[in-house]
Amino acid sequence: MTNMQKFDLSTAEAEIGTPAADRLISGAPQFKTWNLEEAEGGLYAGVWESTPGKWRIVYEEWEYFHILSGYSIVTQDGGEAAHLRAGDSMILRPGFEGTWEVVETTRKDYVIRL
Q: The domain spanning residue 35 has which CATH number?
């Protein structure tokens, strides 16, 4: 076993998903998630991609992500919209509630801690 891992999507199978029906606001977004690492203590890392659409998000976990491609808008309830494009990074903390709108198919890498 090695103590390093390259993010290589060609060796991983994507999980396919969609937002929960009761959270969907518009469109028909489809997700692909390549969860490349799962470590003790509830730590996950990988790559996520979504086609256009808008849905409600509620975070119980902590997440750091970096946008690799596309264009999305993340808006906290009662707050300003964050327009995210390739090169942008963000942290969403437990208790965050708002919306995620994918305007152009978006791909991000992520680290999540439960």
A: 2.60.120.10
Residue in 114, 81, 83, 110 with CA at minimum distance from that of residue 98: 81
Taking phi over 0 as left and psi of -120 to 50 as alpha, with beta for the rest, 75 belongs to beta
User: What residue type is assigned to position 99 of the chain?
Assistant: T
Q: How many structural domains are present in the chain?
A: 1
Strand 81-85 versus strand 24-27 pairing type: unpaired
The predicted-structure confidence for 45-77, as pLDDT tens digits, reads as follows 999 999 999 999 999 999 999 999 999 999 999
Do residues 68 and 109 lie in contact, with contact meaning Cβ atoms separated by under 8 Å? Answer: yes
Residue 16 within any structural domain of the chain: no
Please classify residue 76 by burial: count the beta carbons closer than 10 Å to its beta carbon, then call 0-12 exposed, 13-18 middle and 19+ buried: middle
**Does 86 map to a domain?**
yes
d(CA 74, CA 83): 7
The reported pTM is 0.95
